[in-house]
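Review this fold:
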Amino acid sequence: MAEIIRKAIKAYNIVFYDWTDPRTNSWFLVAKPYEGLILLGLYLFFVLKLGPKWMKNRAPFNVNKLMIAYNILQVFLCAYIFVEATKAWGQYKLFCEPIDYSESKDALNAVNITYLYYISKLLDLIDTIFFVLRKKFSQISFLHVYHHTGMVMLIWGGITYLPGGHGTSVGLINSFVHVVMYSYYLLTIVFPQVKYSLRWKKYVTQIQIIQFFLCVVHIGSLVFIPDCAYPRWVVTVFLPQNLFMLVLFVDFYIKTYIKKPKENILVISTKTNGTKENIECYSNNEKTGDLQFHVDRIDDSKLLLRKVNQSEKYCKV
C-alpha cells in the first residue's frame, strides 16, 4: 500500500509539476488541479442544485446593475485580449506555430495573454450565477453548463502546459466572439426591446457556430502537418471538444431558429382603464414586446393579436 501511495505521489509530481510550464506553475489557479476542480465543483453544485433550491420560494433578484457592470467588464477584457492576441499573431505562422518556452518579451507576452484569457473563462461562470439569481432556470441548459465548464478545464490545460503557440487561435477567435456576445447582453439590459428581436439572437448564435468551425479547422490542420513542433497530442483533446461544441450549437440553432416550436401566445395580465386596455403578451414564455402586436378584444376570454406583416393570432386571457 505504501508503495502504491509513493508511486501515486511521484506520478502526481511528474504530471502536475515536472511537465508543467515553469513560468506559470506557481500562478493562481494554475497547475494544481484540485484548485480548479474545487472551484468547478462549487459552481456546478450551486447552479444545478443549491441555487435553484434556494431560489425556489424567493422572488427573482433584480441584478441589472450588477449585470451591466459585469458585461461592460467582459466587453473590455475580451476586447483587450483580442487586440493583444492580434498583435502577437502578427508574428505567428497560421497553421503551425510552436510554443516559445523562452523568457523573451514576445514569449512572456503570449503567456500573460493566455493567463488573462484563462481568467476570463473563470469570469464566464458568473453568467450562470446570474441565471440562478434571476430564476432563469431554463437557460441553465446542458449546452450552457458544459460549454462554460469545458472551457475552464481546457484553458487550464493551456496555461499550465501550453501557454502560447498554435493553440492561441482559440483565445483569439473566442475573445472576439465574446466581445460581440457580451455587447449584445449589455444592450438587452440597457435597451430591453433588443432581446425581443429574434434576429439578433440568431446572429450571435451564427457567430458562435462560425467560431467553433474555425477552431476545428485550425486545430485539425495539425493532423496534416506531421513535422510541426507543436505537440500533436493536443489535437486529441481540443479537436473532439470543439467538434462536440460545434454539433451542440448547430443542433441548438436548428431547433431554435429553423424548426421553431409552434408559437404559443398567452396574455399574462390585462388592465382596463376606461376604453383603453394595457396588455402584456408573452410568446413561448418570453415577452413579445408591445410594438410587435396590435391587440383587439374579441370577448371576455379571447384577444385578437395582429402581428405586423404577419397573420392574425388569437390568445386566451
Summary: Residues 14 and 20 are 9 Å apart (CA to CA). Residues 263-280, 282-317 have pLDDT under 50 and may be disordered.
